[in-house]
Amino acid sequence: MPNSTVLITGARAPVALHLARLLHATGLRIILADSPAHPIAAASTACAAYRRLPPPRFAGHAYGEAVEALVRSEAVDLVIPTCEEIFYLGQIWRDRALPARLFAPDMALLAQVHDKHALIRLAESLGLAVPETTLLQSGDDLQAVRGQSRELVFKPVWSRFASHVLLRPSPEKLDAINPSPAIPWVAQRFVDGDEISAYAVAVKGELKALGLYRSLYRAGKGAGICFELVDDPAARLFVESFVAGTGWTGQISFDLMREQSGGILPLECNPRATSGLHFFRDPERFADAMLRDGDEVMPDVDVPQTVRLAMWIYGLPAALRSRQIRRFAQAMRDADELLDWPGDPAPKRAQWRALAEIAGTALRQRISLQVASTRDIEWNGTLQD
Prior knowledge:
By secondary structure, the chain is of the alpha/beta class. It is built from twelve helices and 16 strands. This is ATP-grasp domain-containing protein.
């Protein structure tokens, strides 16, 4: 698709910046969009224009109008979501006739895989091994599993960054949650093993890119901020089987657990980009696989990746609490700064302004930095206006 215009949404995210750089390097015109005023990707030389949009969670109709106007005015050929705005875009593409293609499955499948209970049922229907998972929609449902709480993990059906997760809690701690049809939870068997994250690109059920990785440090319990590539044939087989069974087109990511037996079990799915994208740095091969139905592209970076600013904010305090300063220092030495890119230094400087904007939101709303970073694009099962 030479001389085409691609709209990448979620410009606040390092993965949006990385994707913009990859596709821009192949000659594509890249427009970026999001609701913050100063996202890091907007500063990149890969960005032909940045368009600020209304926050989809709080202004759904205005968001839809703005997206449609942007697609038409910029003659956008392809829209690639990178964050949770994908669910709002999925509904827009379901309800409107737009001239651009959305690089994602239909809204029904997006919603199904984002639902932590429906995902498990879907994977099970495809013949994949899954952990025992029970849907909780009432006090009676919760009471039925209270006696096994020490063997279970409790989490909202719609959540992110491991927020609100209760890991093998005492029965008394379950009094803090109140599942309902509007706010359902799941109780899932605690799986002992090694966590593996998967980032993949698929087209019509065919795997086009796969990065398997392990997070060495996280922002709290959530997103990885320093991570290393791993190789696991069983994890690859799971992802390959899932995208084939669903006929998936788009980006898709999983949190998987590798049991001591070697088996792979899914915990949750994010139908969007995650940090595994940073292990791909060959623009032509990646774009060929993603956009031109080329052969599968393999990760071409084997050095751990990190955002050093995030490591100072989240990694250092974690290292101090665990008294593992040497491990932290070694990780900082071994990892590459993922924001670095030849001839494009501005985003690395722009992260300070982006952080200040998020911090302002956090202070005004009295919420954490992590919650503030995504509160305007969170999707919890319904479109709000």
